[in-house]
């Protein structure tokens, strides 16, 4: 036992004994993402553990977009994906999205270093992948809301209005950006989270508009 009665060392990392369950860790992150990221960074997680976080968020992404585009799609999402292309959506979620998360974390690392960030790429990946994992339930909740709206659209046509329906489709993007921004700010020792969040929000907005313009908006969420 080292440091205190509540901590122990394993490999190169320092682990806390209390609230070690995954549900506890996620709920702690919802309350204080910076503290949660700080704890995870001290543990020095393996690459396999980081990939686990990404793959779980990939599966939630897949479930979310399946709900929004296949199970109970609103009229604005009709025809985005047909049932016979469900395999394509899963491949995109598990392979393409995972690769994009690595690329995204590298871009975050490069820009953070420009502003004197203190983390290396492994630490940035830890923050980004943990943020994606922590925010995944919010994306699923947004998908459930969108699916419910799609179910009731035939009897309440106003639910199909694009100004009402589209924000719900992208609602899960807000916590996704926020938790990744908070984790990144902590990893790079930035004093404030809000500038990182605003920069990532602008990047996400540009990326979303660009993908919509090329007809690939269904691949992100």
From TrEMBL:
Keyword Manganese in annotation: no
Stretches that traverse the bilayer: 50-67, 87-115, 127-152, 164-185, 197-216
Membrane topology: Multi-pass membrane protein
Leader sequence segment: none
UniProt keyword annotation of Acyltransferase present: no
Alphabetical list of InterPro entries matching this protein: Yip1_dom
Any one GO cellular component localisation term in the record: membrane
Domain of life: Bacteria
Protein name: Yip1 domain-containing protein
Species for this entry: Neptunicoccus cionae
Native organism taxonomy: Bacteria, Pseudomonadati, Pseudomonadota, Alphaproteobacteria, Rhodobacterales
């Amino acid at each position: 036992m080292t440091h205190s009665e509540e901590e122990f060392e394993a490999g190169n990392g320092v682990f806390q004994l209390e609230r070690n369950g995954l549900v506890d860790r996620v709920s702690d992150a919802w309350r204080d993402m910076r503290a949660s990221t700080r704890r995870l960074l001290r543990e020095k997680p393996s690459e396999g553990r980081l990939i686990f976080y990404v793959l779980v968020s990939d599966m939630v992404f897949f479930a979310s977009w399946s709900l929004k585009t296949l199970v109970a799609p609103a009229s604005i999402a009709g025809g985005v994906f047909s049932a016979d292309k469900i395999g394509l959506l899963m491949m995109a979620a598990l392979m393409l999205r995972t690769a994009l998360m690595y690329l995204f974390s590298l871009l975050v690392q490069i820009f953070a270093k420009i502003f004197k960030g203190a983390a290396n790429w492994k630490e940035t990946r830890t923050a980004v992948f943990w943020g994606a994992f922590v925010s995944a339930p919010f994306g699923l909740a947004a998908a459930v809301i969108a699916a419910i709206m799609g179910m009731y659209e035939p009897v309440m046509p106003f639910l199909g209005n694009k100004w009402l329906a589209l924000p719900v489709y992208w609602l899960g993007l807000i916590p996704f950006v926020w938790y990744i921004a908070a984790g990144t700010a902590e990893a790079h020792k930035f004093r404030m989270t809000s500038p990182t969040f605003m920069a990532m929000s602008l990047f996400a907005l540009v990326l979303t508009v660009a993908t919509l313009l090329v007809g690939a908006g269904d691949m992100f969420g």
